[in-house]
Amino acid sequence: MNTWGRYLLLSLGLIISLHFILQFTHEDYGRATSLQNISSKLGGSKQTPNPSPVPDAYYQPAGKGNETLLVDKRANATFVILARNSDVSGTVRSVREIEDRFNKNYGYPYVFLNEEPFSEEFKSRVSVLSAAPMEFGHIPKDHWFQPDWIDEEKATKGRDQMVAENIIYGGSVSYRNMCRFNSGFFFRHPLMQKYRWYWRIEPDVHFHCNIEFDPFVYMEDHNKVYAFTITMYEYEKTIPTLWGHVRDFIKLHPEFVAKDNAMGFMSHDGGDKYNLCHFWSNFEVADMNFWRGPAYTAFFEYLDSKGGFYYERWGDAPVHSIAAAIFASKDQIQFFDEIGYEHNPYTHCPRTKEGWERGRCSCDQNKSFDYDGYSCMSKWDRFIAD
């Protein structure tokens, strides 16, 4: 073999070796360069059809509006939006879009929650966007701020370490307050008590398709408890001890584990290890009776007592997702393919041409996050199909 050939083989060997080293040591690189992800990008992996489409019977007749709706088919439900006064412009955009794409035909009420009293500007700019009832609530201090029993020295060390590692929101106490509030307190707020169902909406999100069916009524009719549009991997460094506490809780309370649960979506070895998949909770439609029930109440209080919301950076997304996967049966979790949704930088766009056209969607199906290397959607598809 000539010198050029030897150099070529040596170079190829170094590249291949570097590739495998990066796959094992860098999680994001490993997912992005997986055979499954590469084949999907090249068209070798076909997107599976929506496993649980909303039946035609739940859709409004074409061209019809409020006059076709039956009062007894509305659910006891509300939108809930956590926002600061400074979020007013983003909140206006989100409310305007959900009104145009859905709520102008349904008139569901809104509950806005804030750690501080809402300004008159915020209330006036939002109130003109809909004829639906709107309430503006102040979050109680003990539901929002870091509890006194947290070891602040330990919490500070944890935040400093995350800042040193460039972990997003790693140094933020307010972000941790928000995650803890969304995990265990929003459904306890006095303004939320009269409702059973909620649809969580964030400031500055986008709804890309007309939603001409009622997700609340569909979920109530089919005994669903939790719905999502995007699922992805959690950043492991933000939850290093979370799964260990989950396993400990299950050992203490096996009676809460649902018989036909979705543990298999989050763990491939019966619960020993967590694969980091979770439902992205900035969009969720769910039954607050589930969060208010004995299983989740005990679960949240147990996790909260460990301090991980502050010593680490536990998010409400993995906490909600793990609870839904373990304490509900898998057929109680709903993927709404029909709802085109965007929270920067990720977008879910309906998979089928028929669904995309029916919703008059503005999203690009080719840019949907569903089968990105960081998405867990293919795992959900396989789990539900089994």
TrEMBL record:
Keyword Transcription assigned: no
Organism: Collybia nuda
Biological processes per GO annotation: cell wall mannoprotein biosynthetic process; protein N-linked glycosylation
Protein name from the UniProt record: Glycosyltransferase family 15 protein
Record-stated family: Belongs to the glycosyltransferase 15 family.
Gene3D superfamilies for this protein: Spore Coat Polysaccharide Biosynthesis Protein SpsA, Chain A (3.90.550.10)
Cellular compartments per GO CC: Golgi apparatus; membrane
The entry's keywords: Signal, Transferase
A molecular function (GO) term: alpha-1,2-mannosyltransferase activity
InterPro entries attached to this UniProt entry: Glyco_trans_15, Nucleotide-diphossugar_trans
Segment forming the signal sequence: 1-23
SUPFAM superfamilies the UniProt entry points to: Nucleotide-diphospho-sugar transferases (SSF53448)
Keyword Manganese applies: no
